[in-house]
Amino acid sequence: GGGDSVVTLLDYGAGNVRSVRNAIRRLGFGIKDVQKPEDILKANRLIFPGVGAFAAAMSVLNKTGMAEALCTYIENDHPFLGICLGLQLLFDSSEENGPVQGLGLIPGVVGRFDSNNCLRVPHIGWNALQIQKDDGILYDIGNNHVYFVHSYRVMPTDSNKEWVSSTCNYGDEFISSIKRGNVNAVQFHPEKSGDVGLSILRQFLLPNSSISRQKLIEGQASKLAKRVIACLDVRTNNKGDLVVTKGDQYDVREHTKENEVRNLGKPVELAGQYYKDGADEVSFLNITGFRDFPLGDLPMLQVLRYTSENVFVPLTVGGGIRDFTDANGRHYSSLEVASEYFRSGADKISIGSDAVHAAEEYLRTGVRTGKTSLEEISRIYGNQAVVVSIDPRRVYVKNPNDVNFKCVKVINPGPNGEEYAWYQCTVNGGREGRPIGAYELAKAVEELGAGEILLNCIDCDGQGKGFDIDLIKLISDAVSIPVIASSGAGAVEHFSEVFKKTGASAALAAGIFHRKEVSIQSVKEHLLKEGIEVRM
Ligand code: 1PR
């Protein structure tokens, strides 16, 4: 079972548990991996971060004999912490591609959030909890927010209420954590919930190690917090170093004789800084991924590995996710590229150009082949792990009937008094316009398995004049997955504007944070003052 400073980890190899490992190490613990069922029975403390789909996980647990060992371990009340799917698997069954039987230790059925409820599914983001029993691992949590990412949940009932230690509101009231004796499980991700999450893990690893008990304000209904995301556009400069750069309408070169790539800092350092400053998420976009193959670009994987050692909020990485054949004729599938990103510490991957091609094909044929990178990655890792990044450019028109794309009546008319515009999708970092609009693309990629949309706007990028409200409203009204508003933030007021006028779930900025013109903290304080729920 290892000494007191060792945790046993049940990782059945279905996805990224690197961040759980990093968080355990950060708290000063070693890790012993479960190889066989006896390792579970011998553990002093067991952490079970469930990843992937319910049925696939149960099938591995049953086949390896681990299901039985887990049940014995838990029935004997040994210290246990299940995370996300690691909570759901304890229940009777799940409707995810099912019904599928679970471990049956707790009465209840895992069901899908109802997206007809005006809710965006997956539930992605930060919520506060309603504490039902405030002892144990939630001792320090108070009204702080923790990070969720899931499409399925269990509801509290009379038959499972003795287990429920907290609930959370998202359309329905669902179970956010359970506790009985030494057995704990949480639906959220402590390893991605910043300092609050680390303190929850610390309470499990070192019971009664509480640093400061947070006061619980009773009776607060928690809302999903709006996220503030820091984005790092990354590429190699002329010297071959990987740098954070920032474009002006996607042009990242200095307008000097040398024409060098604008250099705003080092990726790992900046990401660490934004984590400390309170970013709810950090995104890396490998902006030359469309021409330089990312698996040849090992520095990017290295950046992810180092970043995930110190950054305990979600990390997204994009750029170059597509099928590729290298100079030696070796073929790499987009799934292999994505898997390498996940293994290196990404929680979500983002697809740009390849998703445009997939959507065009889908709209042309009406057939879902299941073979596009979007569909394949989403099938294996779940749609909550797949973001589609859209790079549209505004095209003004006099008459909306002149084009076959969804037009909006714009707030500010175009240069020739045009009152309408459509938003043309581009590929290869904005270099090539495609015959598909952002509206059509967004709806198509939602059907193909995207779990979230990162909505840029080339016209607004780097301008600091505010987000494109017309565009963001158009897209956030069109889909029921979360939409991240991006491009154009120049002041704190732009963030409250986008949250008040559109259905965006998150707002992303780059330039103002890199140039230290506006801090993440001041954005959050402003939003709070404006009555918008944020994680402080
Ligand atoms: O097509 O799958 O290889 O992905 C390429 C990815 O790289 C896409 O997500 C695409 O958006 C991104 N990208 C490509 N070229 C550029 C460029 O700038 N030349 N960057 C680029 C996208 C936009 C945002 C930026 C916001 C906020 N940059 O990431 O951070 O506009 O900026 P602001 O707050 O300063 O206004 P593939």
TrEMBL record:
Catalytic activity: L-glutamine + H2O = L-glutamate + NH4(+); 5-[(5-phospho-1-deoxy-D-ribulos-1-ylimino)methylamino]-1-(5-phospho-beta-D-ribosyl)imidazole-4-carboxamide + L-glutamine = D-erythro-1-(imidazol-4-yl)glycerol 3-phosphate + 5-amino-1-(5-phospho-beta-D-ribosyl)imidazole-4-carboxamide + L-glutamate + H(+)
Binding residue positions for substrate: G320, N456
Compartments, record wording: Plastid, Chloroplast
Active site feature: C84 (for gatase activity), H189 (for gatase activity), E191 (for gatase activity), D233, D391
Annotated binding of L-glutamine, by residue: C84
UniProt xrefs under InterPro entries: Aldolase_TIM (IPR013785), Class_I_gatase-like (IPR029062), GATASE (IPR017926), His_biosynth (IPR006062), HisF (IPR004651), IGPS_HisA/HisF (IPR050064), IGPS_HisHF (IPR014640), Imidazole-glycPsynth_HisH (IPR010139)
Class in the EC hierarchy, top level: hydrolase
Entry superkingdom: Eukaryota
An example molecular function term from Gene Ontology annotations: lyase activity
Family statement drawn from the similarity comment of this UniProt entry: Belongs to the HisA/HisF family.
PANTHER family per UniProt: IMIDAZOLE GLYCEROL PHOSPHATE SYNTHASE HISHF (PTHR21235:SF2), IMIDAZOLE GLYCEROL PHOSPHATE SYNTHASE SUBUNIT HISF/H IGP SYNTHASE SUBUNIT HISF/H (PTHR21235)
Protein name: Imidazole glycerol phosphate synthase hisHF
Organism, scientific name: Nepenthes gracilis (Slender pitcher plant)
